Amino acid sequence: MGLSNFGELKASLAALLNRSDLTTKIPDFVTMLEARVNREVKFRNRRMETSTALTFTGDEADLPADYLEARTVVWQSTPRVRLEFMAPSMFETTYTTDTAGTPQNYTIFGSTLQVGPYPGSAVGATLRYYQRLTSLSADTDTNWLLTYHPDAYLYGSAIESAPYLGEDNRIQVWLGFFDRAASELQGEDARARWAGAPIRPTLDITIV
Questions:
Q1: Contact at 8 Å (CB) between 113 and 61?
Q2: What is the pTM of this model?
Q3: pLDDT at position 174, please?
């Protein structure tokens, strides 16, 4: 049995659970697994990264609907400026006027990204960020997690069936497989990013 799309995942999950009365609940188990992936930092992966151009009204721009967390924010002036994050309370204390300048910092208020100082021109910024996992809906749907780590999808969804399975001892087995898949996912991502990169030593010099 394949695991290349939502339809195949549902069929495999039904076979794994071996419960004919849960067919209508299986999409809910998958949805709950997707919510867990979006919440837990251990699933952050280069395949979740994307970028978008932010258009500002004054000093604010709307975040993308699939935004999870920022990687970098770069103001597209000449030269470009990588903005440093500032906590909202510190941001409000620091930028108390609308005096124009080249932004140096950003903060997040709800679904809005705000920069300071107040932009002196309508240049805009590039936001590189982690995006939410694309949810599976139609039987032909797929996404990066199902394509590259179908075991995480299968066993993670099975774990979410626990309230319906009660004290089923298979849950601990599935949890073990799921945790291993999550750990291997982290390792794969780290190797893809850093394997082969030269290690540059740093010196810790204390001047007395």
A1: yes
A2: 0.86
A3: 94
Please state the domain extents for the chain.
6-45+133-191, 56-123
Tell me, what's the pLDDT at 202? 54
Give CA–CA dist 134/68, Å, rounded.
Answer: 12
Question: DSSP of 65-109, one letter per residue?
Answer: TTEEEEEEEEE-SSS-EEPEE--HHHHHHH--S--EE---EEEEE
Nearest to 77 by CA among 129, 125, 19, 148: 125
- Contact residues for 174 (Cβ-Cβ < 8 A; gap 6+): 155, 158, 159
Taking the C-alpha atoms of residue 115 and residue 84, their distance in angstroms, rounded to an integer, is 10
Peptide linkage before 88 cis (omega within 30 of 0): no
At 168 the pLDDT is 84
Report pLDDT digits (tens) over 108-134.
999 999 999 999 888 999 999 999 999
